[in-house]
Amino acid sequence: MRRSTTRRSSRMADEIMRELGRIIVQEVQDPRLELLTITGVRMNKDFSIAEVLYTHYNGQSSELEDSLQKARGFMRTTLGKNLRLRYVPDLRFTWDSFVEEMVYDGKS
């Protein structure tokens, strides 16, 4: 994925990140996603893909990934309605290992 570094993509990524956080807290009914944290969103050059970086209190698990994939369509639909986007980007969830790397590197 070729990432965009424009100001427009940065604003769009911030809006998507805030709205996804709100959707997960207020609208998604899956208890496995309760302690999920959206740490960032990266847009590609043509805004067709939003790479959503996330962490979870209990760590990375296949069960968490499955629940995100199941809720992806709902989140994408709700995102399009709330942000009034003509084209809603495809949401791709990626585990954010930055925090873990910082913690483990700090102990050395």
Task: Please outline the helices and strands.
Elements: H1 7-26, E1 36-43, E2 49-56, H2 62-83, E3 90-95, H3 98-107
Parallel strand pairs: 2-3
Antiparallel strand pairs: 1-2
Structure description:
With 108 residues, the protein is α+β, with helices and mostly antiparallel strands. The chain has one domain (7-107): K homology (KH) domain (GMP Synthetase, Chain A, domain 3). The chain is built from three helices and three strands. The chain has helices at 7-26, 62-83, 98-107; strands at residues 36-43, 49-56, 90-95. It has a three-stranded mixed beta sheet with strand order 1-2-3. Strand 2, helix 2 (62-83) and strand 3 form a beta-alpha-beta unit. The protein is globular and about 40 Å long. The termini are far apart.
CATH topology (level 3) name: GMP Synthetase, Chain A, domain 3
Mean pLDDT score: 87
Low-confidence stretches: none
Strand order of the largest sheet: 1-2-3
Sheet of most strands: 3 strands, mixed
Q: List SSEs in N-to-C order.
A: HEEHEH
Radius of gyration: 14 Å
Total individual domains: 1
Structure class = alpha+beta
- The number of strands is 3
**Gap between N and C termini, in Å?**
33 Å
| Rough outline | globular
Share in β-strands: 15-25%
Helical content (DSSP H or I, runs of 4+):
40-55%
Please give the CATH class.
Alpha Beta
CATH-scheme architecture: 2-Layer Sandwich
Task: Give the name of the CATH superfamily.
Answer: K homology (KH) domain
Number of helical segments with 4 or more residues:
3
